[in-house]
């Protein structure tokens, strides 16, 4: 017998349990099951499994249902709070980057004037600018990035629970 026939028989067995078969399909399946031990075994196992599922029932304590719903609601609220904190860090980081770049362009001109007044040589002027302008705002951006990473790992960690 070809493998296709067995596959067909198993498909009929599955369908027989859910949507049902036509009379011709039903007859074909019964005939196949009579001659094929493998598919017959599959059919019996399927029937037994479905019977087993039918008798699988349990009573639920109403208090437990309420507590479970409450816990799920609380969990959803916590997740939402974490996500909004995450978005806040993300916006903060984007703003800090923007200010670092735009601010540097604007502040450079003011700094150049100061550096000229103080008669700084170029490397002193660049170092001063880096230390007093670029470094602080880049630090803020980095701290926000760290916060972002922490928040993200906390979200991922908790969603596994
Ligand atoms: Zn078969």
Structural commentary:
This protein is mostly helical. The protein contains 5 helices and no strands. It has helices at residues 3-17, 23-35, 37-54, 62-117, 122-159. Helix 1 (3-17) crosses helix 2, helix 1 (3-17) packs parallel to helix 3 and helix 2 (23-35) crosses helix 3 (37-54). The two termini are 50 Å apart. The chain binds zinc ion. Zinc ion binds at residues 6, 9, 32, 36, 38-39.
Structural class: mainly alpha
Instruction: Give the averaged pLDDT, no decimals.
Output: 84
**Helical proportion?**
over 70%
Number of strands: 0
Order of SSEs: HHHHH
Distance between the first and last residues' Cα: 50 Å
- Global Rg: 35 Å
Subunit organisation of the chains: single chain
Kindly give the count of domains: 2
Portion in beta strands: under 5%
Largest sheet: none
Coarse morphology: elongated
Q: Uncertain spans, ≥5 residues at pLDDT below 50?
A: none
Count of discrete alpha- or pi-helical segments spanning 4 or more residues: 5
Bound molecules: zinc ion
List keywords for this structure.
binds zinc ion; 161 residues; mainly alpha; 5 helices
Give a quick summary of the entry:
The chain is mainly alpha-helical and 161 residues long. The protein has two domains: 3-54, no CATH class; 62-159.
Would you spell out the secondary-structure blueprint of this structure?
Blueprint: H1 3-17, H2 23-35, H3 37-54, H4 62-117, H5 122-159
Helix pairs in contact: 1-2, 1-3, 2-3, 4-5
The structure holds zinc ion (ZN).
């Amino acid at each position: 017998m070809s493998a296709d026939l067995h596959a067909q028989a198993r498909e009929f067995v599955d369908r027989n349990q859910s949507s049902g078969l036509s009379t011709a399909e039903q007859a074909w399946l019964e005939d196949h099951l009579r001659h094929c031990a493998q598919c017959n075994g599959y059919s019996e196992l399927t029937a037994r499994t479905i019977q087993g599922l039918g008798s699988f029932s349990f009573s639920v304590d109403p208090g437990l249902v309420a507590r479970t719903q409450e816990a799920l609601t609380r969990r959803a609220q916590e997740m939402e709070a974490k996500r909004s904190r995450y978005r806040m860090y993300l916006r903060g980081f984007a703003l800090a980057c923007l200010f670092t770049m735009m601010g540097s362009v604007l502040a450079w001109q003011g700094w150049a004037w100061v550096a000229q007044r103080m008669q700084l040589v170029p490397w002193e002027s660049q170092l001063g600018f880096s230390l007093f302008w670029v470094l602080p705002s880049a630090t803020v951006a980095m701290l926000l990035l760290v916060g972002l990473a922490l928040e993200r790992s906390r979200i991922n960690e908790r969603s596994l629970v």
